[in-house]
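WARN retry 2 of 3 for item q-0093 after timeout on previous attempt; input resubmitted unchanged.
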Amino acid sequence: MTNEKYIRRSGAKIMASLITLLGSLAYIMILAVINGSVGFIVAMGVTLMGAVGIAKSLGEAIPLSYGAIIALTIGFGVLRGFLRYLEQYSNHYIAFKLLAVLRDKIFRALRILCPAKLESKQKGAIISMITADIETLEVFYAHTISPICIAVIVSTCVTLFVGFTVNWYLALIALLGYLTIGIIVPMISSGRLKESGVRYRAEFASFNAYFLDSIKGIKDIVLMHAQDQRKDEVNKRSDSLLLETKKMKHDTAKATAETELSVSIFIILTLIVGIILVANNHLTIGKMLIGVTAVFGSFGPVIAISALPGNLTQTFASGDRVLNLLSEKPAVNPITDRKDFTFENLEVNHLSFSYDGKTQVLKDISMHAKTGEIVGIVGESGCGKSTFLKLLLRFWQKETGDILYNGIDINEINTDSLLSNTTMVSQTTYLFDDTVEENLRIAKPEATIEEIQNACRMASVHDFIMTLPDGYQSKVGTLGDN
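OK item q-0093 returned
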């Protein structure tokens, strides 16, 4: 019975789970946040120094000479480029390092979940997860964690700077702007963006799976003259994917427009409040100019946050799928602390099994076999012959009945020992893009060429292999295309 369960996590839970994967790379993320925060502040300093120079010319008491102001402006500009480079380098180093780690984690998870996993999930969907979903997570690690931290730090610094050096009313307007643009607007748009992102990723995975099946079965499709029907179905699914893409882009554009409108409103509001304060002699023109310029130039980090829901719709959907796979429980757990055996006999008594817990595939099956016997399992297509063999190898957990090797229950036998004594030639054989010899070594990497040739003689394929151009060194191509 499959243990596959899908959990729909909230955006916050997905972010928290993905952040925990940082591990030892957390210090690099801290470095990226520091560089990014200082970088934004010095970028604001370029325009702010211009405002300071104008304020000084208007008679404001500025303890800096014009030469110092010009030097600081140039210095801030140069420093901004250097800090921006360090921030982006750190973020992308973390992102691509973690992508490699995640691929390794997924492969390890699949090794534990398979072969049962491949019985219940399309291979195309798994390939989509390993490739497209993992690549999508680059947005989170390179363009999400750091910008959020930077926005909080920069917004806090600017609010305090404007409040202490200019006026607290302007600081309050700036703070309201940061909260609205960085929190309220994204919260309003995130709901619809998340749903469209989930639908898009699901449609994308479905299309990938169908298209992969079409490519792998193209010979049969052509032989059966089914190419027109298959092409029509591919086009139909492609149109469905395009429709979901357009919906997602529409929702993203709408969210962007809401952000830009909010920024414009708070820029105008800041200017109006500044003019009112000057008109009522609560603020000099020079200080108003400095405060307004500081606020105008500080919306960049929160605008970046506001744009995250649009970028994160696919990221959260992909992250949810990856986290579901990593948390999935295998149909059976490997046994390592029980008994080893050398095959002498097999006895199956009253075995029953169902994949979904409802529809029984096998019911009250019994058989026995011993060393040297050849036993045939006969039945109509779909009656459960392959399922029965997979239960004998413990690919799935039996429900009722007994499977006994040498009188030992299958659940009391170490997995390595079981697989050393049993094997199965499946209906589908996968050949890797490598030599004949290396394909045969998969079962026993340390096998000598003599052992390989002896096994091939027993399987009556040695003579055929020797007719190939390079014998056992012949390349077979993916799926044996050669």
